[in-house]
Amino acid sequence: MAVDLPSDAGFNRSGEGSALVEGLRSEARRLGFSRLGVAAVESGRDPQVHEAFRRWLDLGFAAGMERWLAAHEPLRREPASLLAGVRSVVMLATDYAATAPATGGGRVARYAWGDDYHDLLRPRLNALGAWLEAASPGARTRGVVDSAPFSEREFGWLAGLGWFGKNSMLIDPAAGSYFFLSALLVDIDLPPEVPIRVDHCGSCTACLEACPTEAFVAPRLLDANRCISSLTIETRGPVAAELRSGIGDWLFGCDICQEVCPWNRFAPGSVEPTFQPRQGQPALALAELLALDEQEFRRRFRGSPLGRAKRSGLLRSAALVLGNRPDRAAFESLVAALADAEPVVRGAAAWALGRWRVAGESLADLMPRIEGALRARQKVEADAAVREEIAGSLAE
Ligand code: SF4
Ligand code: SF4
Question: How far is CA 247 from the centre of its chain?
Fold first, then answer.
């Protein structure tokens, strides 16, 4: 479903004089994109953007992605590796901020409330590319939605879709930062936008201060090793002990540095069905999650971004959230998770039960059962890391 836009929202920037760009705008709007901007490939690029990326990689802040990103950096730097003869990039923003009442349980980052956005944006991009190729015979296009080494945010900035906020997000002064970026590479010249060079963050530091795991080393310098998004989505093993409490009730991703950003007051809502909360979301019942076997996990999260965390990652995070936010209704599930097939889930459950042991009077009646469950598991546990977690929890 197309987003209902005011007539000039984001489609009214430069490019006047080009009937082709005007046609593109109106076709993009018809297809459901929220905003559009054009960047030239050969001019306007700022070497500082690449230097900052390189520095971030060299500092080891890419949370295990350093090697892959470094290997693909030359391709990322050169869009012609994706489309020979590319001259322009049409950047498209798609607002995704659905609204829903808060529910208890593990929180999910807003972008993942609904279905996988790739499945929505890819066909739209293909349709826009087909329109352009028909409108400009001989032109060739290629659509990119996180599917290739491409510098989306750099080109989003070049295309006038926002400035780089201190939280590292691209922020549109009229629409905030809750939007997906996708790109249509084209091998013809289109009139480019003027990038936003003003730092509209000013003296604000709200995002830097609000980050619960202190992941910002400096403005616009994010140590992804500490970011809850990486920890809950990409990290496959145990989460470092000193970061677990910072995860709070985030089960998948984290929106805090966007939630506190004053520019998100202007974020347009989205009524796009793909982005509306799936069953049980925006927050998920943790006991239910802990009971999912592999088959049920796949069935439940097919077509959802949450599938990316894999069963072991999502259940691990569910146990960590329960450690931070004890919930009696999930007690039996947490004890059962001590015997999960995945060591990472067993270890997180052991840690969580240790947190319950120090949680205070309200859980005092459960203490004998918690200790009994930990001791029983300790006797049969074969994994050294899990044994260590159990020992730590018994020592609490
Ligand atoms: S997403 Fe959350 S953890 Fe990551 S930088 Fe932002 S506030 Fe910090
Ligand atoms: S919260 Fe403040 S500092 Fe952070 S990105 Fe938004 S405006 Fe910039």
Answer: 15
Would you say residue 267 lies in a domain?
no
Residue keyed to tokens 């007690």? 331
Distance between CA 50 and CA 53 in Å, rounded? Answer: 5
Q: Candidates 153, 201, 205, 266: which one to mutate for ligand 2, based on the most atoms within 8 Å of Cβ? A: 201
Q: Taking residues 234-243, report their average pLDDT.
A: 95
Rounded CA separation 201/209 (Å): 14
pLDDT digits (tens, 9 = 90+) for 194-233: 999 999 999 999 999 999 999 999 999 999 999 999 999 9
Residue 6 domain-assigned (yes or no): no
Q: Which ligand is nearest to the CA of 261?
A: 2
Ligand 1 pocket residue status of 228, Cβ below 6 Å: yes
Which letter, b or e, does each residue of 137-165 get, where b requires 16 or more Cβ atoms within 10 Å of its Cβ?
eebbbbbbbeebbbbbbbbbbbbbbbbbb
Q: Identify the DSSP state of 22.
A: H
Domain boundary among 186, 201, 219: 186
The closest-lying atom of ligand 2 relative to the alpha carbon of residue 167 is 5
As for how many domains the chain has, the answer is: 2
**To the nearest whole number, what is the mean pLDDT of the chain?**
91
Q: Catalytic one among 95, 146, 255, 327?
A: 146
In this structure, what are the phi and psi dihedrals at residue 161, rounded to the nearest 5 degrees? -85, 0
Closest approach atom of ligand 1 to CA 214: 8
pLDDT tens track for 155-202: 999 999 999 999 999 999 999 999 999 999 999 999 999 999 999 999
| Rounded Cα gap, residues 349 and 88, in angstroms | 51
Domain extent at residue 155 = 19-186
The verdict on 176 and 58 lying in the same domain is yes
Give the three-state DSSP class for 36. Answer: strand
Q: CA dihedral in degrees (244, 253, 303, 289; nearest 10)?
A: 30
Can you give the pLDDT at residue 10? 40
- Domain end among 136, 160, 186: 186
